[in-house]
Amino acid sequence: MSRFCRFFLNAHFAASACILCGLRSLALAEGATSPRLEPHPTGETISLRDAIELALRTHPSGAQARANVDVASARVEEARAPYLPQVAASAQYQRTTANCVIRPGYANQACANSPPTSWNPSNNNYILSASASQLIYDFGQTSERWRSSEANVASAMDSERGVRIQLVSNVRKTYFQARAQKDLAAVADRTVKNQERHLAQIDGLVAHGMRPEIDSVTAQTNVANAEVQLIAAENGYALACAALDQAIGLSAAAGYQPGDDEMAPLPEESASLVELLAVALRDRPELAAFAEQRKAQEHIIESTKGAYGPSLSAQASVSDQGVKLDSLAPNWWVGALLSWQLYQGGATAAQVREARATLRSIAAQEETFKLGVRVDVEQASLAVQAARATLDAAGLALKNADKQLELAESRYGVGMGSVIELGDSQVTETQAAAQEVNARYNLASARAALLGALGRE
To answer: Which ranges in 30-140 belong to alpha helices (H)?
Structure first.
């Protein structure tokens, strides 16, 4: 676009902003200031380390993962319980009749001489009893369930560690996203101040007849546009701080804002993709959890197959029974019970097939997760490399844009440059500064993502 066309486009934008500029000038004349959002949330500044520690203590997903470990630990005791003695006691009172019942195939002489049956008389009957049993052997049904539950505890602990890593990674990424928005708001604020300084300089030149009035109108438009960008940047910062609170596990009312923490380079970030994948497949706790789940399911298969065999247990019982509490008759017995479910309609065979299919499902989920790990590691590694290269280029662009703005301001001050050149240089400097901020914190976020993909806190 030619300089002539840009001049008339800027003049058109200036005319469109006349009302806004006029109101702003009137407000400034009356001693008022332009309406703006708060420059940043008013909450407490928090360091990255404190944000991570707070998230690990308070985030609901972390509490849920720890509760899952407790649930799995309790199930170990449940699975072990059948190996311990089972003791039960009962006390029963009955009000009962004593009519003799004639039964086919039994000697019924005593009933033949008994009085006719009736609902009366009735008598008290007290039964006090206690029994105990001890499982001796059940072809691995109990022992394999016990081993399965212990493997589930190890899986739950690995999963809990995976949740911790994910929490830490999310906090890091949202922390640096908030830092980026904070710096973008600072860039926007600096741009407003620069535009206001340009406006004051131009107004002085216009007042002395050294510049046309359209330069002043154009500068006022530039100030108004810069203020719009500042409002948007400050709103973006407020939203980023709310996202940080959410990543920590708090409500947005907490109002935490990031400090000045940086993300140091990672020792692994220059490694090859093959090396990074090997590290991730070795260290990711989710993969260790899958391995324990497979082990647990293998024990379940063996436990289910144990139902094909008999179960042996020792038993004992003692009781007192009679019609009066002060004259109960004691009895006891001891013995052994061998039980064998010879046929259950194919239920055991179906349960074994189900357990084996579940094992195959777990193995398939593990392979799917490995594919996801490869994608995560590759994306994070490429993002780090791209961000590093972008940061170098963005730094050079910002340096040149600063020099360009400085020259444009000098040229305009001595009457050699135009207001369009000055405005274009300011826009270029602002864009370069924002680009450098985004590149810097994109690199920090990419490093955080790479740490999480490798299974590191």
So the answer is: 48-58, 60-80, 109-112
Contact 228, 24 (CB under 8 A): no
DSSP 213-247: HHHHHHHHHHHHHHHHHHHHHHHHHHHHHHHHHHH
**Rounded CA gap, 290 and 365, in Å?**
8
The answer to whether the CB of 322 falls within 8 A of the CB of 328 is: yes
Cβ-based burial of 246 (10 A; exposed 0-12, middle 13-18, buried ≥19): middle
Which uninterrupted H or E stretch holds 177?
A: helix 141-207
pLDDT band at 116 (very low <50, low <70, confident <90, very high): low
Per residue in 273-296, pLDDT (tens digit) is: 999 999 999 999 999 999 999 999
The domain tally of the chain equals: 1
What is the DSSP code (8-state) at residue 116?
A: P
Answer yes or no: is 314 within a domain: no
Paired sense of beta strands 45-46 and 86-97, if any: unpaired
Contact 124, 95 (CB under 8 A): yes
Per the structure, the complete domain to which residue 304 belongs is given by: 3-84+139-309+343-454
Contact 277, 374 (CB under 8 A): yes
Quote the tokens at residue 25. 């000038």
Kindly report the pTM of this predicted structure. 0.78
Determine if residue 249 is left, alpha or beta; phi over 0 gives left, psi from -120 to 50 gives alpha, anything else beta: left
| Contact predicate 413/347, CB 8 Å | no
Check which CATH number belongs to the domain holding 450 and give it. 1.20.1600.10
